[in-house]
Amino acid sequence: MSLRKIKVSKKTLIITYYWPPAGGPGVQRWLKFVKYLPDFNIDPIVFIPENPNYPIVDKSLKLEVSDSATIIKYPISEPYKWAGLFSKKSSNTISKGIISNEKEQSLIEKVMLFVRGNFFIPDARVGWVKPSVSFLADYIKKENIESIITTGPPHSVHLIGLELKQRLDVNWLADFRDPWTTIGYHKQLKLMPSSAAKHKALEKQVLNTTDQIIVTSFTTKKEFQALTNKPIEVITNGYDNEAQIDFNMDSRFTLSHIGSLLSKRNPEIFWQVLKDLVAENSSFAKNLQLNFVGFVSNKVLDSIKNHGLSDYINNIGYVSHKEAVRYQKQSQILLLIEIDSEDTKCIVPGKLFEYMVSNRPIVAIGPKESDVQKIIQETNTGHYFNYDHYDSLKRIILEHYKAFRNNELQSHPIGLQKYHRKALTKSLANLL
């Protein structure tokens, strides 16, 4: 009589602030991990705030929450709700990480930034830490949970993991969707020297106490290796099998950007290329259209206007994830724009991976030697340009336009399978 080994599912607690109905890219990563973890014999338990103040809401994402997941909630005190009594607009934009240039900031925005940076360290959700630790310490013991995962930002979530590790010595994985003290907006928080030092100290303590660090880019891994000897694994964001979406390809030469275009994410060189092509080519001028699906700053819109391109803009605004995918699939070219800075080399936006499986060519503009550049070149999904590549950028746009006119415009990707959400979840499961 043979005995078969019975696999016992392993309980893992995932602590996250962003969860449906939150919208935006921050929620997608763990929504998909939770979907596939049971395939690797891991039972996900997701801990989220009961009454969050999400800056972007996408109710359609609630339909994607896995039935296999256990969801537990605990109340949070949200200072952004109180800040909204003074200035709802400023409170909402700051909570998204959208910060105006110094010269454009109102007095109330300057005050809110100072308070946010110096009185709420590491972020405005720090008030959720102590009550969550008290609740979860009992829950972990009761449910015999072996591993916990914290995912930030907000990085205050990692402080929950830090205290639970110190109390219970539970196995702890810290997932960084973005860097902590080197993220671009961190420098705009008007930090006093003591506050900046506290951020650095907390970051170092988290990195040196957790059992395993997970990051989304190789640049962030290299940065963290200078701060800790703990193991660091790169698990990027990825793409999933989307439900069948009916769409018709755009009849015009549409260049679409999905997501936020902040004031500093303003590629003047690209607007100049389009301006010159419009002036030189009447057919191009007749067919051009710029689709913006998401928030676009007034500074970007003014820059486009100054280049004489206002008539070509279709400013759509924020839409559901399903609608965003539809725009991706029907567009002729997909735009990916990043700030030209050393601090943004490590940023790999989640939309990149959905772009890659849309079968549309990507035109990306960003800093030299970025992780995005490496991924686009490795997968043959588009072209990447720096902010001084006028001639080559113009040439590629014109080549794409000629292919569009001949009904031959498409991408030819290679090696995308490793970026599928299930393959990425397997890497996560191996760490657990």
Distance between the termini: 33 Å
Range of strand content: 15-25%
Low-pLDDT sequence parts: 1-6, 82-92
Overall geometry: globular
Global structural class: alpha/beta
Rg, Cα atoms, Å: 22 Å
Tally the helices: what do you get? 16
* Strand order in the largest sheet: 3-2-1-4-5-6-7
Helix % is 25-40%
List keywords for this structure.
432 residues, alpha/beta, seven-stranded parallel sheet, six-stranded parallel sheet, 16 helices, 13 strands, globular
What does this structure look like?
This protein is of the alpha/beta class and 432 residues long. Helices cover 39% and strands 15% of the residues. The protein has 16 helices and 13 strands. The chain has helices at 28-36, 79-83, 88-95, 107-119, 129-143, 156-168, 193-209, 218-225, 268-280, 282-287, 298-306, 321-330, 351-356, 371-379, 390-405, 421-431, and strands at 10-15, 42-49, 70-74, 147-152, 171-176, 212-215, 232-234, 253-258, 288-293, 313-315, 333-337, 362-365, 382-385. It has a seven-stranded parallel sheet, covered by helices on one side. Helix 9 (268-280) crosses helix 15. The protein is globular. It starts with 9 loop residues before the first strand and ends with a helix. Mean pLDDT is 89; it is low at 1-6 and 82-92.
Provide a compact summary of the structure.
Helices cover 39% and strands 15% of the residues. It has 432 residues and is an alpha/beta fold. The strands form 2 sheets. Strands 3-2-1-4-5-6-7 form a 7-stranded parallel β-sheet, covered by helices on one side. It has a 6-stranded parallel β-sheet with strand order 10-9-8-11-12-13, with helices on both faces.
